[in-house]
Design a protein that fits this description.
Length: 207
């Protein structure tokens, strides 16, 4: 059989064929991994909610998407998970909140009790400097230097350098400010959800 002559057309055809085959393989692999990745994210969120609500025996009774404007007028979306225990008693809510940190997005999941006090938090995403801003995952936890657990953000939480009551992460004031802003925004979103009292963040009681 006569060999095909090398030409631009032949090269284009070969490259196109390779691209189509590789695209098909990648699509197939993506299809295979799509389910497990989604399940993993779902489990991570469920574990995160249990951690920030300081309770294992709970259920998400309702999920709300709350849109609010930040100080610069930019619209932001918050996901509010209304939480109940196995008996249907209100435990408060877990709120996803994202702000811009020093290195990129800083996404926090924070738990509030029915009165609006902070039960716990976890970092879902961050791009902060390892060893500095990345310390936010521990710095503000209970009994740590910047402990915010049990605080009520009705009065916005700020770092001591700005006249507030929270010690900033050493050499990471920008990250600390971003973190506390995420917490304050989460609290405001919690207050704004239909199932919560607009003044206290507490769940309305049936009369």
């Amino acid at each position: 059989m006569k060999k095909l002559e090398s030409s631009l057309m032949n090269m284009v055809l070969v490259l196109t064929l390779v691209a189509v085959i590789m695209g098909g393989i990648l699509a197939y692999v993506n299809h295979l991994t799509e389910g497990p990745i989604a399940e993993q994210k779902e489990k991570a969120l469920a574990d995160g909610i249990k951690a920030v609500m300081a309770c294992n025996d709970l259920k998400v009774a309702k999920t709300d998407e709350v849109k609010q404007n930040d100080a610069k007028g930019k619209e932001m979306t918050f996901t509010v998970y209304q939480i109940q225990d196995a008996q249907g008693n209100d435990l408060g809510a877990a709120v996803e909140s994202t702000t811009m940190g020093f290195g990129g997005n800083l996404k926090v999941l924070v738990g509030f009790d029915p009165e609006g006090k902070i039960l716990g938090y976890t970092l879902l995403e961050h791009a902060e400097t390892p060893g500095l801003g990345a310390k936010a995952d521990k710095w503000f936890q209970k009994d740590q230097k910047g402990d915010i657990i049990g605080k009520d953000p009705k009065e916005p939480l700020t770092v001591s350098k700005d006249g507030g009551q929270v010690d900033a992460i050493t050499a990471s004031t920008i990250t600390s400010r971003a973190f506390l802003l995420a917490i304050n925004n989460a609290y405001n979103a919690y207050k704004a959800t239909p199932a919560t009292d607009g003044e206290t963040g507490a769940t309305k009681q049936n009369q």
